[in-house]
Amino acid sequence: MPAKPKLGQNFLNDTDAIQRIAASLGDLSGRTVVEIGPGAGAITCALAGRVLAVELDHGLAAHLRAQFPTDRVTVLSEDILRFDFAAAAAVAGQKLAVVGNLPYYITSQILLKLAASHASLDRAVLMVQREVADRITAGPGSRDYGLLSVTVQLYGPAEKLFTLPPAAFSPPPDVHSTVFRWRFAPRLAELGVEEASFLSLVRQVFAQKRKTLANNLRAAGHSPQTIAAALAHAQVPAQVRAEALSIEALAALWHSLKTAGATSSGEVAPTAESISD
Question: Which CATH class is domain 5-186?
């Protein structure tokens, strides 16, 4: 099947990588796996368990239906951003595993979709552009640490597994690709934060990475007095930048601002555009 560049199609053709991706999901006996953008079905072939293959391209979907038995693989010709993970988990009677080579042009949107569906998910093994994986898995103090890191890691730990060169795909992309594993274990209750409000604060403090956290908070409309009191209460240095703070420290700052009445549960969580910056 010829790839369609406008849909971000780069088909994985590295047999070893395909087997490593499948193995990275762990034991799938009796499990249901959602595969995002199965393409020509290379990874689908290696997956055990019941597979829900969500493919936007109608031609590829038809190809997949002809290739796999319906008792093992159900091909759904639809947009993954509209896929109902909660309904699929309810039918499966269990949380879902997810796998996929994500189209680069909607990677952030898919990650946010998975985060929003975290209650229905157990784990995911995903392939993204190498630089995006660096940001997803980065820790505090790293140049790659930012809004995307905190947003993903708030819903569970993410770890890089391996990186593939362009030659592993047909047609070869212009970038290297990294496979990472994301285990869904939301930290909202542990940190005691309100989801949308906390992520809105994170977006504020990472708005301009070269500015101090205090300057970003001022730009977001917080008063100097409120900022000074919140930083002192959270034991955060006044001149620190957001990339130096762990999720726990950011949660402490959120609590301090909430005590001062400077947060709102009605605030909007990050968009795909904001975490792509």
Answer: alpha beta
